[in-house]
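This section describes the prediction task in plain terms. A model, or a person checking by hand, is given the sequence of a single protein chain and must write out its three-dimensional structure as a string of tokens. No templates, partner chains or ligands are provided. The sample shown here is typical of the held-out split.
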Amino acid sequence: MPDQAVINLLNIRVKIMKATHIKTKNAAYQKLEVLKTNRSKRYRYGEFFVEGVRNINEAIENRWHISSFIYTEDKPLSDWASNLLRTIRTDVNYILPFNLMQELSGKEDTSELMAIVKMRKDDPLALTFSDNPVIALFDRPSNRGNLGTIIRSCDALGVEALLITGHGVDLYDPEVIVSSMGSFFKVPAVRIASNNQLIEFIDSLRAKYPGLKLAGTTSHNKQSIYDTDLSSPVMFLIGNETEGLSGMLSGISDQLVTIPMSPDSSASSLNVACAATVMFYEAARQRKEYL
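The expected answer:
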């Protein structure tokens, strides 16, 4: 028989994982909707909407705080969903009729379980790195899919953090999270509020890594990425899809590098997510850590 302390802990968990029934498009339902669709409301509440088995699993695996699960009792739940509802501590869960689940879900095959997750604080100075890191910065991203794909490539190729500067698409937009294929919750992604904050962060990196190289990326005919030494600490500065790097970021770059194109190509440049992936791969290849 469990002792009284164990029973008390179980009772506390049961109380915390309370559930609220939502039967109409009331205020509670509207909050779920705006967390999915409204950028400013997401930041007001400090929460964001997550859908997809892989994304939810990665959020839990990487210890993000799950505020709520959203599900229906109109259909049987899988063992996976039932187990999460039973074991993951939340603030409050929401039970919806299936028709409202259909409206809330972004999938053709309606998700059986969705989640509301707490945002993490943007604090670049709190980031920790290895002895020889690769870091990336994305300046004013304008496409959700590109941002999510770059996060995924960071995860796949050992980039330890992604910084986001300037006004661009929302890091916590559901399309960004979906396109990252779960990597969103693994790779630290931090928004930089100002140029001053960025310079402060770079100065802190240079103090720890005196050989740090800021490699600005460009589609113009600059030094080839393949002729650039990426074996020491490096931060890639990746420009906006249309305008490239800002003048400020180009100015602080130690080197401007480019990906050579075939002389017979009619393409003047690569998609930014493709280009970033090539850059990350080349850094990993030079280090030969796992390639």
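For orientation: The first helix runs from residue 4 to 16.
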